[in-house]
């Protein structure tokens, strides 16, 4: 169940297996075995990394009571592909999280000044 949920979320985000594994810093082969149900008990560290890449909470990823449709809807609502691409572009350009946060704070301050 967890592997199928991960695969469906990954595909809904338009991520290839390789891309998802790379972003999560996990082995592609390991992610593949989880998705195919060959392994069913991944570590919490693995789940945290995958949940972060898929933009869902660990709880919603592992909770059987949360349906896949609910998890997909929440993930897609929070970040669409354009936002994901923009964040990836910022990361690829070398912008650090703290620099991005400072920029956002500055923009909020400017808006409040107007």
List keywords for this structure.
mainly alpha; 114 residues; 8 helices; 434 Repressor (Amino-terminal Domain)
Describe this structure in words.
Helix 1 crosses helix 3, helix 1 (2-12) runs parallel beside helix 6 and helix 2 crosses helix 4. The protein is mainly alpha-helical. It has two domains: 1-79, 434 Repressor (Amino-terminal Domain) (Orthogonal Bundle), CATH 1.10.260.40; 80-114, no CATH class. The protein has helices at 2-12, 17-24, 28-35, 44-54, 58-62, 68-78, 81-92, 97-113. The model has no long low-confidence stretch (mean pLDDT 85).
Task: Produce the secondary structure layout.
Elements: H1 2-12, H2 17-24, H3 28-35, H4 44-54, H5 58-62, H6 68-78, H7 81-92, H8 97-113
